[in-house]
Amino acid sequence: MKLRRCTVVMLEPREQVQFDLQAILQGRTELATNTTWFALAGHLNQPVEISAAQRELIGTLSPRHWVAAGELPADGTVWQPLLDAGLLIADDEAHAGPRARDEALRDMHWWPLSALAHRHARWQGVDSAADMRANDLVTAKGLRRQLGAPPPAVHEYPGQYEPLPPAISGDYDQLLERRTTCRNFDAGRSISRELLAQLLQRTVKAQAVVQVEADTEFLKKNVPSGGGLHATETYLLVQRVDGMEPGLYHYHPVQHALIGLPRRCGRPLQEVARAMLSGQDWFADAAAHIVLVPRFARTYWKYRNHAKAYRALLLDVGHISQALYMAATERGMGAFVTAAINEVDTEEAFALDGVTQSPVAIVGVGWRGPALETAEFDPNHVVWTLG
Fold first, then answer.
1. Whole-angstrom distance between the N-terminal and C-terminal Cα of the chain?
2. Of 206, 175, 170, 174, which Cα lies nearest the Cα of 325?
3. Distance in angstroms (rounded) separating the CA atoms of residues 138 and 127
4. What is the pTM of this model?
5. Contact 339, 361 (CB under 8 A)
6. Is the Cβ–Cβ distance between 317 and 292 less than 8 Å?
7. Alpha carbon distance 287, 365 (integer Å)
8. Per-residue confidence at 387, pLDDT binned at 50, 70, 90?
């Protein structure tokens, strides 16, 4: 068996502080510190605690050149746990899974720090809404009580600012004013299939296909994209759309068509939606959830090991979400976007591998409910007029 280290790995020392028990027994109050090393890899979900000997071994190995296990400068008690954890990659069939994930990451040409930031910021099973409620962080006043005053809302330079002339308000300005995040969806009202189709057509449908070579195409959409690559895929969790079976779907931007995907669990769709949304129940009643999933290989094909490529992908998702907001608002619907999602739970629902494709945000659309039960940020009372 031959071994190499994984492609992307960072070694992090973490200092733990605790009371010194020996000092306390002698009548003194002192703190003791202990440093533990962890390895964070781009293809693994969790950090791995490592010893000093394992840390040194990782530093001697190459991610490209294979070494026979018997030639490693350490015995099996050092390298075997690293192999079991996936930090070392083996060429045998028994360890094909970690090797495939590592090779997929390597072949996409991620900038290493972006790969680590994306991989280790993913959530699974987090209930962010429960955490917010437990810590009194749901309302603006609660945030102020718990966290103190925030930095100023505006950064001002000393001196006199020159006022700009006010613009004449038109239909588009009124549309912008009505764009407010919806937290009160009507759980009993569906949207039409034609309306969902229009939202997708206005935002993620390919308006043109440019054929450069037989195997090289570029899409023109109504939203901008870094390098014109449009690497973000559109998946849907449909709860209430007339003429559509509730379930999971993938959208084809060239064909302007949907295909149903298999369900991998027997839970009700609303429970799946709530898990994907990390417990944000005020969003779970949306008629349709649009899951924005970058396909990393498409972007990194052009921007190989590029420090800005991941930022461009995040901007792409922002452009799409704002376009969906405006399209929904223009039709009188409510919409939301959130990045506080359980990526791993979403990947499991849609059978995404988390390496080549992984969700970044979820947009929901639907009709607003008749009553304001959960607070929405509408200070000018454009959506919820004062009664």
1. 75
2. 175
3. 13
4. 0.92
5. yes
6. yes
7. 6
8. low
